[in-house]
Amino acid sequence: MAWVCVVIAGFLEVLWAYCMKVSEGFTKLTPSVLTIVFMIASFALLSYAMKSLPLGAAYTVWTGIGAIGSFLVGIVFLGEPASAMRMLAAVLIISGLILMKISAS
Questions:
Q1: Fewest Cβ atoms nearer than 10 Å: which of 1, 59, 68, 77?
Q2: Model confidence pLDDT, tens digit, residues 2-46
Q3: Residues ≥6 apart with Cβ < 8 Å to 59
Q4: What membrane topology term does the record carry (predicted)?
Q5: How many domains does the chain have?
């Protein structure tokens, strides 16, 4: 259950990062409020998961999901470039996440 919470928290991190981007520096009310709501929910789930998971594994997976998810959202929804170097970096992050999860089991 703790790993499920970390994964959900990671997806919420992607949502708050996206909402922060579209809030235009917290000048738009709805995305600004959503940013804060998703942040609180993400931190709360991560905190709950850390009661039973190692700090390094939980935090690394959480930030990794957020990084890769935000990377993909940027490409798909915001028109950011998908260069070979950026794709390689994403593959390396995913590889690290898998290794961290395996090592924590």
A1: 1
A2: 999 999 999 999 999 999 999 999 999 999 999 999 999 999 999
A3: 46, 50
A4: Multi-pass membrane protein
A5: 1
